[in-house]
Amino acid sequence: MATHGQLFIGGEWTAGSGTNTFETVDPATGQVLAVAVEATASDIDAAVEAATKALADPAWHGMTPSDRGKLLWRIGDLIEQHAAELGELESQDQGQSVGFAQGSMAGAADMMRYFAGWTTKLSGTVSPVSVPGMLHYTRREPVGVCALITPWNFPLAIAVWKLAPALAAGNTVILKPAEQTPLTTLRLAELCAEAGVPAGVVNVLTGGPDVGRGLVEHDGVDKVSFTGSTEVGREIVRASGGNLKRVSLELGGKAPSIVLKDADIDAAVTGNLIGGLVNNGQACAAYSRFYVDASRVEEFTEKLAGAMSGMTLGPGSSPTSQVGPLVSAEHLARVESYVKSGVEQGAEVVVGGKRPGGDLAGGYFFEPTLFTGVAHDMTIARDEIFGPVLPVIAYDDPDELVARANDTSYGLVASIWTRDVALAQRMAHQIRAGEVMINTLPMLDPAAPWGGFKGSGWGREMSAEALDSYTETKGIWVNLGG
To answer: Name one Pfam family in it (predicted).
Structure first.
C-alpha cells in the first residue's frame, strides 16, 4: 500500500515538510505495522490551502447535485468491493475481529450511499415575507473547509460518518485520523481518488494531538467535527473561538443499563454481554454500568459471569477470538488502573481482572472483568473506562432509577430491559440521553440521528440532521419592482 508514511494533500501523496514520523502497531502482538508521517504546521497550511482552492474549483463547486450523488455512490461501491481488505487492515491496526471489522465496512458503504441520496434533496424555501414587492428565498450552501478529527475505536466507520454528509453538502475536508489507527483512513483517501473525487476535496493529515490542535486553531478551517473524549471536546470548543468556526462533537459516555424486576433475564444477560463488550468495551455507546433489581441481581450476575468466563481471548485475525486486545499499551494500563481502583474501593471481581499470560502476553489484552458489590458513587461506576469492565449495581427502589441514570456528566446512550414496554417508554422520556435502547443492543442506522446530551457532545451524526451542521442557510432578497 503506497500510502504508508505519506500525507494526502491536494490530490497528491507527499512525505510532508518535516522529518518526524511515528509507528502504528498491531495491538495483538505489539509489532510495528507501518511508519506514518507527523504532519507539520506547514503541512496543515498546505492542506487548508488545497481544500480552500478545491472549494471554488468548478470541478467541485460546479458539480451538479446528481453527479455529486453518483460520486458518493461510487465511493460506497469501492468500500464494499474492498471490504475484505479494509476489514483485515482495520483489524491489524485497531485490534477488533476481522469479521466485526468487515461488517463495519459494509455499514460504511451503506452510510455513503445514504448521503448520496441526499445530494439532490438539499432544498431551500420561499419565505412568506410581508414586505411588498419583495421575493425572499433561501439556499443551503456548504460551510466550507471541514476538519474531520476521528478516534481510534472505529477508524474508518466514523470517518465515513463525517465524510459522507460533508461531501453531500458540497464541502471540502481534511481528515485527521487518530495516531494509533491511521491506516484505513489513508486507504479511504485512495478509494476517494479512484472514485473521481476532484483534487483537494479530500485531504488526509496524520499525526498526534498537535496536528488536530493546529486544524482546530486554523483560521482557514470553517468547521470542526470531532469524535473522542469529553476532555478534548472541551479543549476544541475553547480553541475554535478564533474565527467562530462551527463545531460538532460526539464525545464520551457511561451508558446505564437498567434491568427491571420483570425483565427476561436471559435476554438481558445476552444483550448486556454483547452491548458491554462491543469492540472489547472500546465504544462510547457500550453498556458500562448495570442497575439490576436486588431480587434478580444474583441470577443476573451468575449468568453473566458464566458467559464471560467462557469467552476466548485472542487476536482479531483468529476466527475463534471473542475478545480482542485493547488498542495500545497506554490504554491497557489505564483500564488496569480502573480495575485496581474498583478493588480498592470495595467492589468484588467475579470474573477476570487481570492481563492474560502465555501466548497473549506480548499483546494488549485484558480479561473481560465483572464487578459486583458496586456502589453508584464508585469510580468504576462513574468514569468512562472504555474497556471490558462491567460493574453491577443492585437497586431496591425503582423510583430512584431515572435519577441514578441521569446522575452523570454524560448523556449518550441508556438501555432499559423490561417486559413492560409502556413503562420503558415513560422512563426513556425521562432519561437525559441522546439514544435510549429498549430490550436491545446498541443500534445504528444511517437514517437515525446519533449523538448525546450534556458532556456527550453537540449536534448529531447520521440522518438528515447531520446535514444541518455541514450547511449554511443563505437568504436572498429580490426587488420585484412592485
So the answer is: Aldedh
